[in-house]
Amino acid sequence: MKTIRTRILILLGLSLMSQTRAQNAPLVPPDLVPAAGTFISLQNYTNWPPLPFDPLPGLAVYSLGDGVYAYDDRLVDYAAMEQDAQIKRCQGSFSGEG
Q1: What whole-number distance in Å separates Cα of residue 12 and Cα of residue 7?
Q2: How crowded is residue 37: how many other Cβ atoms within 10 Å of its Cβ?
Q3: What residues are paired with 71 via a beta bridge?
Q4: Would you list the domain boundaries of the chain?
Q5: Which residues of the chain have a pLDDT value below 50?
Q6: Of 18, 19, 28, 21, nearest to 60 (Cα)?
Q7: What is the Cα–Cα distance from 5 to 65, expressed in whole angstroms?
Q8: How far apart are CA 66 and CA 28, in angstroms?
Q9: pLDDT at position 48, please?
Q10: pLDDT (0 to 100) of residue 80
């Protein structure tokens, strides 16, 4: 029980540190966001692995240093995006496209 509590506290601490670090990090101008690097989601950083590219160009990107970037997807509704993708797949299968 103590081990689980310790792990939860460590994860909570890392979560708060990551959010604070990203909020204090410099914003990267859109034309200077690199094509490759280590990109971390601000919404899902504890559940998703870093990506080697910016998955959502057009969103704010913060430099965390050493080629690590955080993309600000906190307002992105991933559930709605998935639902839209499923609808398009279904429409494609009915029209003979997919």
Answers
A1: 9
A2: 20
A3: 41, 61
A4: 2-95
A5: 9
A6: 28
A7: 31
A8: 14
A9: 92
A10: 92
Is pTM, for the whole model, over 0.70? no
- Token pair 């540190």: residue: 17
Nearest to 64 by CA among 19, 16, 6: 19
CA distance 74 to 37: 20
Instruction: Give the number of C-alpha atoms closer than 13 A to the C-alpha of residue 55, restricted to the C-beta side.
Output: 17
Q: What is the pLDDT of residue 96?
A: 63
Q: Which of 79, 84, 62, 80 is nearest to 71 (CA)?
A: 62
Task: Give 91's Cβ-side CA count (13 Å radius).
Answer: 6
Distance of CA 39 to the CA centre of its chain: 7
Both structure tokens of 68: 């690590």
